[in-house]
Amino acid sequence: xxxxxxxxxxxxxxxxxxxxxxxxxxxxxxxxxxCSARTHPYSLYCPIxxxxxxxxxxxxxxxxAMQASWDKARRAFICYLTGLALDPSDxxxxxxxTFEHAIPKTPGTxxxxxxxxxxxxxxxxEDEFWLAVKELAHxxxxxxxxxxxxxxxxxxxxWSNAQRRAMRARMPEARAxxxxxxxxxxx
Length: 187
Ligand SMILES: [Zn+2]
Prior knowledge:
Layout: H1 47-53, H2 60-69, E1 70-71, E2 76-77, E3 97-101, E4 110-114, H3 115-121, H4 126-142, H5 161-170, H6 172-178
Antiparallel strand pairs: 1-2, 3-4
Residues 32, 34-35, 37, 45-46, 48-49 line the site of zinc ion.
Protein backbone atom coordinates (compact mmCIF):
# COMPACT_ATOMS: atom_id res chain seq x y z
CA UNK A 1 0.00 0.00 0.00
CA UNK A 2 1.59 3.28 -1.09
CA UNK A 3 1.68 5.84 1.74
CA UNK A 4 2.62 8.89 -0.39
CA UNK A 5 4.54 10.17 2.62
CA UNK A 6 6.41 12.81 0.60
CA UNK A 7 3.47 13.80 -1.59
CA UNK A 8 2.69 17.46 -0.98
CA UNK A 9 0.09 17.89 -3.65
CA UNK A 10 -0.02 19.36 -7.11
CA UNK A 11 0.16 23.14 -7.59
CA UNK A 12 -3.44 24.39 -7.69
CA UNK A 13 -4.85 25.53 -10.99
CA UNK A 14 -5.11 29.31 -10.99
CA UNK A 15 -8.28 30.60 -12.68
CA UNK A 16 -7.68 32.90 -15.65
CA UNK A 17 -10.12 35.53 -16.86
CA UNK A 18 -11.96 33.79 -19.65
CA UNK A 19 -13.88 35.70 -22.33
CA UNK A 20 -17.60 35.59 -21.68
CA UNK A 21 -19.84 33.59 -23.97
CA UNK A 22 -22.88 35.87 -23.92
CA UNK A 23 -23.16 35.82 -27.72
CA UNK A 24 -23.95 32.11 -27.61
CA UNK A 25 -27.22 32.80 -25.71
CA UNK A 26 -26.98 29.53 -23.86
CA UNK A 27 -29.97 28.23 -21.90
CA UNK A 28 -29.64 28.54 -18.13
CA UNK A 29 -29.04 24.79 -17.72
CA UNK A 30 -28.04 22.11 -20.19
CA UNK A 31 -25.80 19.05 -20.40
CA UNK A 32 -22.08 19.58 -19.83
CA UNK A 33 -20.22 19.36 -23.15
CA UNK A 34 -17.67 17.12 -21.47
CA CYS A 35 -19.37 14.86 -18.93
CA SER A 36 -23.12 15.46 -19.54
CA ALA A 37 -23.81 16.53 -15.95
CA ARG A 38 -26.03 19.59 -15.44
CA THR A 39 -24.21 22.74 -16.49
CA HIS A 40 -23.23 25.73 -14.44
CA PRO A 41 -25.85 28.44 -15.25
CA TYR A 42 -25.40 29.78 -18.79
CA SER A 43 -22.26 27.72 -19.30
CA LEU A 44 -21.31 24.94 -21.69
CA TYR A 45 -19.85 23.00 -18.80
CA CYS A 46 -20.78 21.63 -15.38
CA PRO A 47 -19.19 23.30 -12.32
CA ILE A 48 -16.47 20.62 -12.00
CA UNK A 49 -15.38 20.64 -15.67
CA UNK A 50 -15.64 24.43 -15.73
CA UNK A 51 -13.42 24.66 -12.65
CA UNK A 52 -10.75 22.66 -14.46
CA UNK A 53 -10.80 24.27 -17.90
CA UNK A 54 -11.19 27.86 -16.75
CA UNK A 55 -7.60 27.70 -15.57
CA UNK A 56 -6.32 27.51 -19.16
CA UNK A 57 -6.14 30.25 -21.77
CA UNK A 58 -6.66 28.05 -24.80
CA UNK A 59 -9.12 25.37 -23.75
CA UNK A 60 -9.76 23.50 -27.00
CA UNK A 61 -7.08 20.88 -26.48
CA UNK A 62 -7.96 20.50 -22.80
CA UNK A 63 -11.66 20.02 -23.54
CA UNK A 64 -10.86 17.39 -26.19
CA ALA A 65 -8.57 15.56 -23.78
CA MET A 66 -11.22 15.63 -21.05
CA GLN A 67 -13.94 14.38 -23.40
CA ALA A 68 -11.70 11.48 -24.48
CA SER A 69 -10.90 10.63 -20.87
CA TRP A 70 -14.46 10.71 -19.50
CA ASP A 71 -15.79 7.22 -18.75
CA LYS A 72 -19.60 7.28 -18.74
CA ALA A 73 -20.00 3.96 -16.95
CA ARG A 74 -17.53 4.77 -14.17
CA ARG A 75 -18.64 8.43 -14.12
CA ALA A 76 -15.03 9.49 -13.81
CA PHE A 77 -12.06 10.85 -15.71
CA ILE A 78 -9.59 8.05 -16.30
CA CYS A 79 -5.78 8.16 -16.23
CA TYR A 80 -4.72 7.20 -19.75
CA LEU A 81 -1.66 5.33 -18.52
CA THR A 82 -3.00 3.40 -15.55
CA GLY A 83 -6.79 3.32 -15.95
CA LEU A 84 -7.19 4.79 -12.43
CA ALA A 85 -10.17 7.06 -11.77
CA LEU A 86 -9.01 10.65 -11.25
CA ASP A 87 -9.95 13.15 -8.56
CA PRO A 88 -10.86 16.42 -10.31
CA SER A 89 -11.03 18.66 -7.26
CA ASP A 90 -8.51 17.81 -4.52
CA UNK A 91 -5.02 18.84 -5.62
CA UNK A 92 -3.50 17.22 -2.53
CA UNK A 93 -4.66 13.80 -3.76
CA UNK A 94 -1.99 11.81 -5.66
CA UNK A 95 -4.86 10.82 -7.98
CA UNK A 96 -5.59 14.48 -8.77
CA UNK A 97 -6.52 15.11 -12.40
CA THR A 98 -3.58 16.57 -14.31
CA PHE A 99 -2.83 17.17 -17.98
CA GLU A 100 0.06 15.39 -19.60
CA HIS A 101 1.53 15.42 -23.07
CA ALA A 102 1.77 11.77 -24.21
CA ILE A 103 4.72 12.89 -26.33
CA PRO A 104 6.65 15.39 -24.18
CA LYS A 105 6.12 19.05 -25.16
CA THR A 106 4.18 18.07 -28.27
CA PRO A 107 0.88 19.88 -28.95
CA GLY A 108 -2.01 17.64 -29.94
CA THR A 109 -0.97 14.80 -27.61
CA UNK A 110 -2.61 16.09 -24.44
CA UNK A 111 -4.09 13.44 -22.12
CA UNK A 112 -5.26 13.12 -18.53
CA UNK A 113 -3.14 11.39 -15.93
CA UNK A 114 -3.02 11.02 -12.16
CA UNK A 115 -0.68 13.59 -10.60
CA UNK A 116 1.77 11.02 -9.24
CA UNK A 117 1.83 9.08 -12.52
CA UNK A 118 2.40 12.34 -14.39
CA UNK A 119 5.38 13.04 -12.18
CA UNK A 120 6.76 9.52 -12.67
CA UNK A 121 6.36 9.72 -16.42
CA UNK A 122 8.23 13.00 -16.58
CA UNK A 123 10.15 13.21 -19.88
CA UNK A 124 9.26 9.71 -21.10
CA UNK A 125 7.22 9.00 -24.18
CA GLU A 126 4.41 6.56 -23.40
CA ASP A 127 6.35 3.58 -24.82
CA GLU A 128 9.49 4.53 -22.94
CA PHE A 129 7.54 4.91 -19.69
CA TRP A 130 6.19 1.37 -19.88
CA LEU A 131 9.55 -0.02 -20.96
CA ALA A 132 11.17 1.61 -17.92
CA VAL A 133 8.42 0.37 -15.55
CA LYS A 134 8.66 -3.18 -16.90
CA GLU A 135 12.45 -3.15 -16.91
CA LEU A 136 12.43 -1.99 -13.28
CA ALA A 137 9.91 -4.68 -12.32
CA HIS A 138 12.06 -7.28 -14.10
CA UNK A 139 15.12 -5.99 -12.28
CA UNK A 140 13.42 -6.27 -8.88
CA UNK A 141 11.86 -9.67 -9.57
CA UNK A 142 14.95 -11.37 -10.99
CA UNK A 143 17.83 -9.39 -9.49
CA UNK A 144 19.27 -8.97 -13.00
CA UNK A 145 20.97 -5.67 -13.86
CA UNK A 146 18.66 -2.82 -14.85
CA UNK A 147 19.09 -2.47 -18.61
CA UNK A 148 18.85 1.27 -19.15
CA UNK A 149 19.80 0.89 -22.81
CA UNK A 150 16.48 -0.82 -23.52
CA UNK A 151 14.75 2.52 -22.83
CA UNK A 152 15.66 5.18 -25.39
CA UNK A 153 15.26 8.24 -23.11
CA UNK A 154 14.71 10.21 -26.34
CA UNK A 155 13.21 13.20 -24.49
CA UNK A 156 15.49 13.05 -21.50
CA UNK A 157 17.55 16.25 -21.30
CA UNK A 158 19.28 15.50 -18.03
CA TRP A 159 18.52 16.88 -14.61
CA SER A 160 19.08 20.63 -14.29
CA ASN A 161 20.48 22.39 -11.24
CA ALA A 162 17.15 24.18 -10.85
CA GLN A 163 15.29 20.85 -10.76
CA ARG A 164 17.74 19.52 -8.20
CA ARG A 165 17.22 22.58 -6.00
CA ALA A 166 13.43 22.37 -6.38
CA MET A 167 13.42 18.68 -5.47
CA ARG A 168 15.58 19.29 -2.39
CA ALA A 169 13.31 22.13 -1.29
CA ARG A 170 10.28 19.82 -1.51
CA MET A 171 11.74 17.23 0.82
CA PRO A 172 10.04 17.17 4.23
CA GLU A 173 13.39 17.55 6.03
CA ALA A 174 14.09 20.79 4.16
CA ARG A 175 10.64 22.14 4.86
CA ALA A 176 10.90 21.25 8.55
CA UNK A 177 14.28 22.98 8.86
CA UNK A 178 12.77 26.12 7.34
CA UNK A 179 9.90 25.86 9.80
CA UNK A 180 7.39 25.62 6.94
CA UNK A 181 4.11 24.12 7.81
CA UNK A 182 2.36 25.28 4.67
CA UNK A 183 2.73 23.75 1.22
CA UNK A 184 1.00 25.01 -1.89
CA UNK A 185 -1.60 22.35 -1.21
CA UNK A 186 -3.02 25.00 1.12
CA UNK A 187 -3.14 22.83 4.22
ZN1 LIG B 1 -18.75 18.25 -16.81
